Amino acid sequence: MATRLLYISQSGNTRAFIQKLIAYADTHPGPTFEAVEINDLTPDNHETSDYFAFVPTYLDGGNGIDNGVKEILTNALADYLAYGNNPRHLIGVVGSGNKNFNAQYVLTAKRYAQMFDAPLVGDFELRGTATDVVRIYDALSQTLAATN
Ligand SMILES: Cc1cc2nc3c(=O)[nH]c(=O)nc-3n(C[C@H](O)[C@H](O)[C@H](O)COP(=O)(O)O)c2cc1C
Fold first, then answer.
1. Per residue in 75-109, pLDDT tens?
2. Banded pLDDT at 67 (limits 50, 70, 90)
3. What is d(CA 148, CA 141) in angstroms, rounded to the nearest whole number?
4. Is the CB of residue 50 less than 8 Å from the CB of residue 31?
5. Hey, what CATH class is 3-147 in?
6. From ligand 1's centre to the CA of 94, what distance in Å?
7. Which of 31, 60, 86, 93 is the most buried (most CB within 10 A)?
8. Cβ–Cβ < 8 Å for 20, 60
């Protein structure tokens, strides 16, 4: 069964990365994945099997160190992950962002990993490179192998 990759994407980078990851998985022996995009209109739904979350970073104020964070545009994913028993099935978080944001790089994914008690299994910038795709695929595969 393909493992669900839940994600949110405002400008398409995370969506593009996940498409590349799924294409890679389909040509490679090992686990396969299914993309599940969450947006503001997605009804809350009970996840019934282990899944990963892909989380881009959108902050509008706050440095995450000593004055908090103001998260924008990704809140629908946090709400979905928090729904019912969904936190229990979350086995890993992948963060994306832009390193120009320095200490705030992939901060939302780090916060979700802590909030939902799941490991941060990797990160990539923007749409990611071909090397990132392989690296994240390997990290997801290892997490799945350790979970099952
Ligand atoms: C308003 C705004 C705020 C952002 N804040 C951060 C940030 O704090 N840390 C970070 O790593 N990236 C930040 N980014 C970069 C995005 O996370 C990055 O472009 C990501 O690839 C967007 O994913 P998406 O296209 O799937 O929505 C920000 C981008 C925008 C437009």
1. 999 999 999 999 999 999 999 999 999 999 999 99
2. confident
3. 11
4. no
5. alpha beta
6. 14
7. 93
8. no
Calculate how far, in angstroms, residue 82's C-alpha sits from the geometric centre of ligand 1.
22
State how far the Cα of 135 lies from the Cα of 21, in Å rounded to an integer.
10
The sign of the CA dihedral 138, 142, 145, 148 is: negative
Packed helices 13-26 and 130-147: angle between N→C axes, nearest 10 degrees:
70
For a mutational test of ligand 1's pocket, the pick from 15, 40, 57, 123, i.e. the residue with the most ligand atoms closer than 8 A to its C-beta, is 57
Give the DSSP letter of residue 20: H
As to burial, measured by CB atoms within 10 angstroms (0-12 exposed, 13-18 middle, 19+ buried), residue 144 is middle
Both tokens assigned to 123 = 């990160």
Q: Which residues of 25-48 are buried (b: 16+ CB within 10 A; e: fewer)?
A: beeeeebebebbebeeeeeeeebe
Q: Which atom of ligand 1 is nearest to the CA of 13?
A: 25
C-alpha to C-alpha distance for 75 and 11, rounded to whole angstroms:
15
Distance from Cα 145 to the centre of ligand 1, integer Å? 30
Per-domain boundaries in the chain: 3-147
